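quick one, 383 residues, struct below
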Amino acid sequence: MKILHYTPAYPPAWKTGGPVRSVSQICEGLAALGHDVTVLTTNVELEDNLDIVPGRPQERNGVKVTYFSMKKGLSGIRSADLEATVRKRVAEFDLVHVTGVWQPTSMAACRAAKKAGVPYVISPRGALGDYSWTQKPWKKIPYWWLYERKNCCDAAVMHYTTIMEEMECRRFKLPGQSALIPNSVGLGFWTYDADAAQRWRSKNNIPVDMKLLLNAGRLHHKKGLDLLPEALAGLTDSNWKMIFVGSDDDGTKGALITEFNKRGLSERILFIDTIPPEELRALYSAADLFLLPSRHENFGNVVIEALSCRCPVIISDHVGVAEDLTEYEEVTVLANDSAQWSAVIQHMSAEKITESVVNSLNENYSLNAVVSAFENVYRRLSK
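---
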């Protein structure tokens, strides 16, 4: 099959969030199966990367990728060259997969595919979820009725990553098919590494017997991280350290620093900007507990990554993947109440997850399982 993936961001734009990693793994997995996969995207967060020349195709792990210059405006990411190219080339493909909504570039792809009679799939990646509608509703409500609703109604398939996302979108009564396929988390890479874990602790002066708490991902209001200062202040055991890994999106880092300072916890907190995947794998392996008190998480790639590196997790009941993990003792799902989080963090065992649990995760979240599911959807559409 000739497949076009159309997305606003693509590796190595890791700072833009989880979808970049998930989409690239799907594309690379499909290419490895022999499909002809093309990605059209923008150079968002890559403007200073000298290896990327806007408009010039390049191969990345078997995938043909072209990055286009973009501009950020009030309406989102715009790229006249990207939009012109998809209009010109869309008829070359058996199907189009569009990642993301609320972007003018996405609208161009949907309209071009519809006009050319090419079926297309939309992955909203949580952007149509309940939390999203609380952010700038004055802008989103008219945009939905003027543009985005038609894009979604004309889609052959709407792709959802969790039951939570699918349930949140049922109210739109979209006429096309739906596909429930979790994110590919690349579990072949996210594996426990005891030696790397020991080196990471030694390098950062964290004793082996100190409980290491971890959060990884964007620092943003949506992540619910403001619950943690009060929760951690309630711990009676003082032998712990909390690590935050990720870029600050909206001033959340400054607000957290202020709150931890108020409680006299600043010496136990460490903020690290986005790090290479290899170092994050070492940190997952070194951590005793992974914490994600998100207000809304469409899926939660970092949860599966941490588990795959044998790190137990505590997550909120607003994390999409929570429903799929209820059978695992190493996963605790809580309401966003700081007292509950404090009690569970205090008493939860820091023992590493067993290999049998990691093996069971592969059945649902491995690259092979996810790519195979997408391949089946694509084959139905291209007949």
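The two ends are 10 Å apart (CA to CA).
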